[in-house]
């Protein structure tokens, strides 16, 4: 089911399949969320849970047993139930069942809430452990944004701008298996705030940043100031991605975890940045998007 939200001149649409944001339009009617053209990438803004990224050969070991799970987890392909709705917001919930337990043997609920603001939209994740044992998980966002933004401009007219200087050594991703090659560096920043946008940045897959100083990042036209800004906190990892087929979009991705490292084993609870939620506990995460 598609849920429509309105606030002032802003409108948004959310699909209950995957609790995915599929539209964010300003008053001028421009569509900011990537349109999902299968020529480039079918996704639009998938919710990543209970893993971010890929597992080695799509498998992981939990409690001594092997489980299979696709890249970015199963939430993005499952139907969410309505948990609450107003004219400006909607909350959708996925709860563990027989099918999820075949991939991930934990009792959980994941609630995704979208709320329109005066300038954009807020996304909130609430993860709850409904079981009696500690629950390891990762969660993340993956919204794609149409580039260029409502103007005659080239992809290369835009730049990625962090709100603080960053020194980063972004690891390579082995594109043959989608695992992180943490022994090799693919991209570096040395006290810089800007990354000029160009398609070949993503020919080796996503740029992965860790423990950023910044809590804001923009994709903005350096000539006109048009674009989008994401505000995020509480996410130790951040990905920026576009497919290597020169698609006219860029994804900004706040993550709590990441794909399996090539240097790691396959135990789920040993994955980098895994969060461990005690029985009966909950955890909240969120990020905001503003139209510039």
From TrEMBL:
UniProt-listed InterPro entries: Aldose_1/G6P_1-epimerase, Gal_mutarotase_sf_dom, GH-type_carb-bd, LacX
UniProt cross-references to Pfam families, sorted A to Z: Aldose_epim (PF01263)
PANTHER family registered for this protein in UniProt: APOSPORY-ASSOCIATED PROTEIN C-RELATED, GLUCOSE-6-PHOSPHATE 1-EPIMERASE
Protein name: Aldose 1-epimerase family protein
Species whose genome carries this gene: Neglectibacter timonensis
Phylogenetic classification of the source organism: Bacteria, Bacillati, Bacillota, Clostridia, Eubacteriales
């Amino acid at each position: 089911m598609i849920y429509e939200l309105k606030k002032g001149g802003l409108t948004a649409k959310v699909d209950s399949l995957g609790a995915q944001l599929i539209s964010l339009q300003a008053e001028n009617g421009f569509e900011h969320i990537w349109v999902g053209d299968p020529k480039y990438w079918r996704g639009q803004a998938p919710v990543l849970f209970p893993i971010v990224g890929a597992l080695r050969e799509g498998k992981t070991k939990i409690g001594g047993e092997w489980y299979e799970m696709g890249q970015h987890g199963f939430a993005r392909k499952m139907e969410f139930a309505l948990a609450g709705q107003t004219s400006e917001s909607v909350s959708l919930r996925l709860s563990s069942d027989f099918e999820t337990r075949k991939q991930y043997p934990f009792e959980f609920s994941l609630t995704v809430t979208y709320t329109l603001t005066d300038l954009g939209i807020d996304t909130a994740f609430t993860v709850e452990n409904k079981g009696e044992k500690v629950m390891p998980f990762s969660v993340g966002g993956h919204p794609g944004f149409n580039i260029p933004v409502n103007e005659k401009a080239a992809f290369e007219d835009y730049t990625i701008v962090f709100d603080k200087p960053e020194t980063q050594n972004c690891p390579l991703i082995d594109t043959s298996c989608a695992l992180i090659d943490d022994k090799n560096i693919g991209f570096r920043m040395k006290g810089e705030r800007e990354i000029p946008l160009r398609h070949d940045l993503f020919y080796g897959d996503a740029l992965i940043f860790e423990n950023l100083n910044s809590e804001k990042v923009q994709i903005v036209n350096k000539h006109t100031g048009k674009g989008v800004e994401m505000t995020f906190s509480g996410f130790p990892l951040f990905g920026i991605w576009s497919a290597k087929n020169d698609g006219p979009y860029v994804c900004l991705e706040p993550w709590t975890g990441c794909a399996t490292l090539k240097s790691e084993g396959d135990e789920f609870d040993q994955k980098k940045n895994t969060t461990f939620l005690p029985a009966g506990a909950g955890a909240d995460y969120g990020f905001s998007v503003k139209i510039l």
